[in-house]
Design a protein that fits this description.
Radius of gyration: 17 Å
Number of strands: 0
Helix content: 55-70%
Strand content: under 5%
Number of helices: 11
Order of helices and strands: HHHHHHHHHHH
């Protein structure tokens, strides 16, 4: 139950668009629970994005060093999430880590890579050929969000299966 509380707290802090939230969220980078670390990193990205919209251009400096350390030394999931957040913050050097994540043996890591890559249609299209259905669904969803037709084709194909993913595909095609 305790990790669940910490995850909830990290999510809530992600909705607080103040610098103090970033200070508190930095603690999540050292949490023993990987889900807490993941939620904490994503929340950091949300807070920094909101602060930038308000004109605070240096907000990312509060978290960039910790995220870089995790990107370099964390396990496969932590490294990928940290790299994805750093990429969203403008660090283009992280794209290599995300592209490498697309070749991971673990479907979860490949799906995370698809979710974290922004605007790279070539990388997202590669996800359409993934052997894992959820990776393909994520890639198709991201491509549709970019207005690209090949994502819609993949979703139409998923409609034929009649499973839970076909319901999601149907919702995305509407």
């Amino acid at each position: 139950r305790e990790p669940e509380v910490r995850r909830g707290a990290a999510r809530a802090l992600g909705r607080k668009h103040v610098r103090a939230a970033l200070e508190t969220l930095r603690v999540t980078l050292r949490d023993a629970d990987s889900d807490v670390r993941t939620v904490g990193m994503r929340s950091m990205g949300q807070v920094v994005a909101a602060l930038r919209l308000r004109g605070e251009r240096d907000a990312d400096q509060l978290v960039a060093q910790g995220l870089r350390k995790i990107a370099e030394t964390g396990d496969e999931v932590d490294s990928l999430v940290a790299s994805g957040i750093l990429l969203q913050l403008g660090d283009a050097t992280q794209i290599g880590t995300l592209r490498a994540g697309l070749r991971s043996a673990t479907p979860l890591v490949r799906r995370l890579a698809i979710e974290m890559i922004d605007g790279d249609a070539v990388a997202l299209r590669s996800g359409l050929a993934d052997p894992d259905r959820l990776v393909r669904l994520s890639a198709a969803r991201r491509l549709v969000a970019m207005g690209l037709a090949d994502g819609r084709e993949a979703l139409r194909e998923m409609l034929r299966s009649g499973d839970a993913q076909s319901l999601i595909a149907y919702g995305l095609l509407r």
